[in-house]
Design brief:
Two copies of one chain form a homodimer.
Chain A: E1 2-6, H1 15-28, E2 31-36, H2 38-47, E3 56-60, H3 71-77, H4 82-91, E4 97-100, H5 104-115, E5 125-126, E6 128-131, E7 136-140, H6 150-168, E8 174-178, H7 189-199, E9 205-210, H8 214-217, E10 222-224, H9 227-253, H10 256-277, E11 285-288, E12 293-296, H11 303-318, H12 321-336
Helix pairs in contact in A: 1-2, 1-11, 3-5, 4-5, 6-7, 6-12
Amino acid sequence: MKIAVDAMGGDFAPEKIVKGAAKAARRFGCEIVLVGDEEKIKRILTKENRQNDKQIQIVNTTQIIQMNEHPAEAVRSKKDASVVVATRLVKEGECDAVLSAGSTGAAVTAAQLILRRIKGIARPTIATPIPTREGVTLLLDSGANVDSKPEHLVQSAVMGSIYSELVFGVRKPRVGLLNIGEEDTKGNEQAQLTYPLLRDNPSINFTGNAEGRDIPKGDFDVVVCDGFVGNVVLKFAEGLAKVLFRMVKDAIKNGGLLARLGALLIVPPLRKLGKRLDVSEYGGAPLLGVNGCVIISHGSSNEKAICNAIGVANEFVKNNVLQRISDTLAKEEVAEQ
Amino acid sequence: MKIAVDAMGGDFAPEKIVKGAAKAARRFGCEIVLVGDEEKIKRILTKENRQNDKQIQIVNTTQIIQMNEHPAEAVRSKKDASVVVATRLVKEGECDAVLSAGSTGAAVTAAQLILRRIKGIARPTIATPIPTREGVTLLLDSGANVDSKPEHLVQSAVMGSIYSELVFGVRKPRVGLLNIGEEDTKGNEQAQLTYPLLRDNPSINFTGNAEGRDIPKGDFDVVVCDGFVGNVVLKFAEGLAKVLFRMVKDAIKNGGLLARLGALLIVPPLRKLGKRLDVSEYGGAPLLGVNGCVIISHGSSNEKAICNAIGVANEFVKNNVLQRISDTLAKEEVAEQ
C-alpha cells in the first residue's frame, strides 16, 4: 500500500500534513509519498527524526494551488502543483491512493481530468461521514457538484451504499433522499424527480425521504442530496458545534467556582463522547466515481486528521471499493439493455 | 391589538395552544380570538379559570387541515377549517394578525389565497430567527417556497432587512447570501445569478456570501436562501441540537456519581444559556410578503412557544412592518421606471 499525500494543501501545510502522514506510515504500515516542497518537507521529517525512514519518500514540486484559485484553470496551468503531481502518481500506478487537504475544487478537478470518471458515472461525488447518535451517516454529495441532476443523485446513492457496506460494514444500508418532508410528493423539482428513480433502483435499499433532523438521529446510513445543499449543511453543522461548545465554555467560566468544579467532574465521560463526535477522527471523505482512490480532507486538518485520512485510504483500497462500483454499474447497464 | 389563533393546529392542539394564547392575553394585554372547536376550547379555558375572560373570544369551526393534506386543495375545499377562518378574520379587519402551529403549507396557502401578496412581491417567505453566538440571525426563506428564483431571494433580503431593523432593532442589517464559498463566483446557478442583484440593490446592506458556518457565528443579521435549503438547514439544526443534548446526558448518566454531581453544579449557568438557545423563546416566524401579519409556529409548539409567538405578532403589528415593506417596494418600483 502506497499513498500519495499532497503535502502543500491545507491550512497547516506542510507541517501537520507531513507529521500526520509520518504517523500513519507507522500506524498502518503503509508507504507514503509526500508531494511538495522537498526542502521544507525534509526539514519537518528531520525534526521528527524520520529523515531516513524507508517508508517515506518525497517527490519535489514547485507549484501550489491556492484556495481562491479557479480549480479548472489552476489544475490545467500548474502542471507541477503538488495536488496535480500527487494525483498523477495514482494514474501512473505509482501509488494506490491520493490525499489532499487543499482546495477541494482543485482536488476534484485534478481527479476528474487525470484519473477520469468510472464508466457510467456522470459526476463524482464526495461522501462525508457524519457521526450520529448511534453510528455514522454518509452524506453525499457534500460539495463536489452543485446543480446535480436526478441521475447524479441516484449514482451517489449507489456508490454511497457500496462504500457504507464495504468500509463501514453496514448490511443493506438504508438510503434516504434529503428532502423537506416525508411524503413522496414533497420537495423541489430535483427531489420530486429523484424520488421514483431511487425507489425503483434495484442496487440500493431506498427507505424514503430524509428530513434534516433525521441525519443526526441516525435513521439513515446514506443520505443523498445536491452538492450545494450538502456543503451548506456540513459547514453549518461544523459552525454550530463550534459555537455551542464555545458558548457552554463561556457560560461555565462565568458561572463561578462551583460551575468550574462541576465542569471538571464531567470532563472524563464527555471526553469519550467528544472523541466520537470529533470530525478529525474520520479524517477524510472519499471522492467516489473516479478511477482511483481520492481522499479529501478538511482544510483545517491537524496531524490526527491526516493520519486518520490515510487510514480511510487504506480501507478504501483494501476493500476494493472501486472494483465493486464498476461491477455494479456494469450490471445496471446490462439490466437496462 | 387582536390576534386570531388557529387553536386546532399543532402537535399539542388545542390544549397547549389555548393555554399559551390565554397566557399571552395577560402578558401582552392583547385580545385573542381562538378559532376552532368551541366545545373543546371552552373546556380548556374553564380548566384555566378563564372562561369569562373578556380578552378571549371563540370562533367555532368544524374542520381541521391535517399535516399530510395537500395544502392548496385542503385550503380550497375546507372553507371552515380553523386556519382558513382565522386568516379570514385578518382579511376582514376583525383581527390584526393570525397565528398557526398547524401545517405550514396550509397556513402559507391560506395567507396567499385570502390575504394576497403585497404588490411587488412574487413569493412570500418565512423568516426564522436563529439564535447565534451574540444575537439572532434571520434565515429566510425557511420553507415557504422551493425552487426560488433570484428575484425571490432579493425580495426576501429586502423584507428580512426591514424586519430585522424594525423588530430586532438592528441598524443596517448585514445581509448574506447562503453559499458554498466566500468568492462571488461560487455557488450553484441560483446563487451566481442572485449575487449581483443583491450587491446592486440600494435598499439593503449586502455584505457578501454567507457559508453554512457563518450562521451560528452570527456574522450576518439576515441570510437569504432557497426555501428547500433553508428548511433542510433548520431541521438539521433542530435534530443536531436534540441529539447532542441527549448524547451529553447519556454520557454523564453513564459516567458515575462524580460526573452526575458535576452536571448538577453546571446546571445554573447552563440554564441561562439554554434559555437563550431555546427556540420556543422565539415562538414563531413571520410570513413576509402577504397583506397581513401571519405568524408560523413550529408544530411541536408548547404553551410558552405559543405565548411568545403572540408576542412576535404584537411586535410585527406595532412596528408597522407591513407598511414599511409596501413603501420600500413602491420606492424600488419608482426607481426602476
